């Protein structure tokens, strides 16, 4: 069964991002995928120390709640990074998680112990789901390379963005039911595509 792991980087419960993320996952479940959500703000973890210890053995010296999260990341088929836009990029919770993925980069380029073949990349999809208060067309631009770094290092083809700009204009997700419908449809479509992969 196709398994989706969603990492929720929003510190707000039942807010715009969490609502559309839940709809996305409901759509994926209807398509036949199994889903798991992890709320980063509920975890206890330290930020990357920049010590470069992982460059020697490919292992992060920090052991905390993110240790198990990264194990789950490497075991899922679709990875969803969900975050509202704070100060033009992802939240501190999401950025802290991504920074801790430096050990994966080290495994790929320093110890050269992590290799993803073409078939793996075809069957592992990275999805960035995000909301923003403002409706400016550039609202998500600074976040794209940040999430791409994690997807690339963890072996996911970053092919999908599920974006909802202008939450303030619409009065939030509760006044914008179309956003929930779209998220549901996208979740179903993306999961179904991978489930039908030969």
Strand order of the largest sheet: 2-1-3-4-5
Which structural class should the secondary elements be placed in? alpha/beta
How many structural domains can be distinguished in the coordinates? Answer: 1
β-strand amount: 15-25%
Q: Report mean pLDDT, rounded to a whole number.
A: 97
Helix content: 40-55%
Could you characterize the architecture of this molecule?
- Helix content is about 45%, strand content about 15%.
- It is α/β, with parallel strands linked by helices and about 200 residues long.
- It has one domain: 3-Layer(aba) Sandwich (Rossmann fold), CATH 3.40.50.360.
- Helix 1 packs parallel to helix 9.
- The longest helix is centred in the last third of the chain and has 19 residues.
What's the short story on this structure?
With 198 residues, the chain is an alpha/beta fold. Helix content is 44%, strand content 17%.
Give the helices and strands, then pairings.
Layout lengths: L2 E6 L7 H16 L2 E6 L14 H4 L7 H11 L2 E7 L7 H9 L1 H8 L8 H5 L2 E7 L11 H12 L2 E8 L2 H4 L6 H19 L3
Parallel strand pairs: 1-2, 1-3, 3-4, 4-5
Helix pairs in contact: 1-9
């Amino acid at each position: 069964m196709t398994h989706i792991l969603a990492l929720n980087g929003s510190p707000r419960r039942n807010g715009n991002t969490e609502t559309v993320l839940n709809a996305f996952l409901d759509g994926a479940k209807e398509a036949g995928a199994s889903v798991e959500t992890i709320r980063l703000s509920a975890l206890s973890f330290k930020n990357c120390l920049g010590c470069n210890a992982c460059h020697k053995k490919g292992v992060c010296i920090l052991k905390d709640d993110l240790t198990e999260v990264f194990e789950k990341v490497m075991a899922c088929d679709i990875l969803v990074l969900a975050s509202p836009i704070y100060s033009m990029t992802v939240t501190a919770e999401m950025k802290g998680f991504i920074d801790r993925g430096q050990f994966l980069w080290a495994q790929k380029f320093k110890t050269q112990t992590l290799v993803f073949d073409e078939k793996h990349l075809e069957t592992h999809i990275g999805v960035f789901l995000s909301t923003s208060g403002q409706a400016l067309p550039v609202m998500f631009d600074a976040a794209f390379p940040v999430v791409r770094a994690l997807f690339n290092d963890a072996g996911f083809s970053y092919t999908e963005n599920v974006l909802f700009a202008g939450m303030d204009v619409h009065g939030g997700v509760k006044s914008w039911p179309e956003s929930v419908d779209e998220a549901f449809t996208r979740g179903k479509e993306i999961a179904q595509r991978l489930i039908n992969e030969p």
